[in-house]
Design brief:
The chain is mainly alpha-helical. The chain has helices at residues 3-21, 38-47, 55-66, 75-85, 96-120; strands at residues 27-30, 70-73. The chain has a domain at 3-87. Helices cover 55% and strands 6% of the residues. The longest helix has 25 residues, at 96-120.
Length: 140
Amino acid sequence: MTKSFEVNKALIREMAEICQDRKIRFVLMVLPIESYMPEEEKLLKDINPTFDPNRIEEDLRRYAGTRGIDFIGLQRVFAARYRETGTPLHWIHLNYKGHQLTADILAEKLEEILCTNDKKGKAAGPVASKTRPRKSTGTK
């Protein structure tokens, strides 16, 4: 990996440590790159046959795991949704559907964290320990 990627991992570690010192649970979410769409992946593999659209996400998943950081990777989630619907989930950045899918996945993770904390009798940190029922978005 590049030096800038290693700097990013050091910054992630620092953020996680700051959160841990404050008893805040840190969640690392990795946004997808456009290669979640097979046609984009093909273009990148034509340039570099060793291109792996999941490489960065998997490296960060392992990195997070070694540090006890909660992790959400969206590359495969976006790829699966694109295969199901054929609908792009980004323009240059996430589009409305991409934002909605990301929000749904994050909400599921936060609900899991809050429920785990409630069962253990722990405070949820700066997030309220009670969740409101969410409206169904129809995105599942």
